[in-house]
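TL;DR need structure tokens for one chain.
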Amino acid sequence: MKKILVIMLTALFCMGAAPVITTTANAQTVKQLKKDAKKQVKKYNKEGWTPINSTMSLDMLVAKYNTFLLADEETHIGVIGNSVQASDKIGKNAAAMDARAQYCARVSAEIVGKIKSLDSGSNGEEIDKFGEAFEQKINQKLAGVIKDSFVLKRKSPDKKGMYEYQYFGTIDLTAVNKQAAAIAKETMDAYKLQSLSDQVADFIGDAMNNAE
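>> reply
TL;DR here they are.
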């Protein structure tokens, strides 16, 4: 059903229609999303970005990406990464790694901040060490979870013979939230933060979602 909704919304956006749909994506939300997508495409075109390894137009790629996230906004989030490389394959892979790294850094920072707010102040150094270890572990876990959506490319204005890449992907939170909670508990125990580990499980999901 979700796949059908995404296809229908994508087609309607690109045809310029104003659909009336009986889903959580109400008409006002769809209208705003369509407006935002047009702004995105206009900006990308102006800046010289073009899709790679795709037969779809930039308009279709952006519409499909946005509508996919809209159709399941409770369990999927989008991630974006960048790189500067000489070839499409390396550029795409590097940008995907950057997207994952940026997301994991945001998740870790939010969790560390929350833990410090619960702590009496005596475990600051251990909490920071936990944050670094957790960020590395969750980064490894997400390597096989992030799904590619599309990649944009343009000539680098600063580096001759190089190209800038912009990667767009999605994460299914249902596939990682429980694993993230387990990794957090295991890592906290390793840094002797057991007294706080039970409280962490309550906000891991929020941290994963809010770090978009």
